[in-house]
């Protein structure tokens, strides 16, 4: 299952957005209002829970300064990655798009597609407000 957020313009340079997204504690600011729990586990790992969803632990998997940040599920039960592609637009601005890529069976995909799409859209919108 592959889902993408709309591309958002951020009034910060690609370097600034990259620096923000590589600090896992900053993801708490990007979470939707339905966030019930957020906990920084280490400099590269955090746990979060949204209302009606199980707790998820995300790890930083890959960072390519200043253009890409990849987070992935720490558990093999729900294997997925969340990638932020950051493009510098000049004039201290950049654009960011999130891509969710998960390997789920058809039934699971049907159940989680809309909640995941809404989640990455909210993250993207909140990145645009930085």
Automatic annotation (TrEMBL):
Gene3D superfamilies per the UniProt record, alphabetical: 3.30.530.20
Originating species: Aquimarina algiphila
InterPro entries, per the entry: START-like_dom_sf
High-level lineage: Bacteria, Pseudomonadati, Bacteroidota, Flavobacteriia, Flavobacteriales
Protein name stated in the entry: SRPBCC family protein
């Amino acid at each position: 299952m592959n889902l993408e957020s709309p591309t958002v313009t951020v009034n910060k340079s690609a370097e600034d957005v990259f620096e923000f997204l590589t600090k896992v504690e900053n993801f708490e600011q990007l979470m939707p209002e339905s966030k019930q729990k957020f906990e920084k586990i280490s400099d590269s790992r955090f746990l979060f829970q949204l209302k009606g969803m199980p707790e998820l632990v995300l790890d930083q998997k890959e960072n390519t300064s200043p253009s890409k940040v990849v987070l992935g599920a720490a558990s093999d039960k729900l294997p997925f990655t969340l990638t932020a592609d950051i493009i510098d637009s000049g004039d201290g601005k950049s654009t960011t798009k999130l891509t969710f890529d998960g390997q789920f069976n058809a039934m699971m995909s049907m159940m989680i597609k809309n909640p995941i799409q809404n989640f990455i859209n909210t993250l993207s919108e909140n990145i645009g407000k930085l």
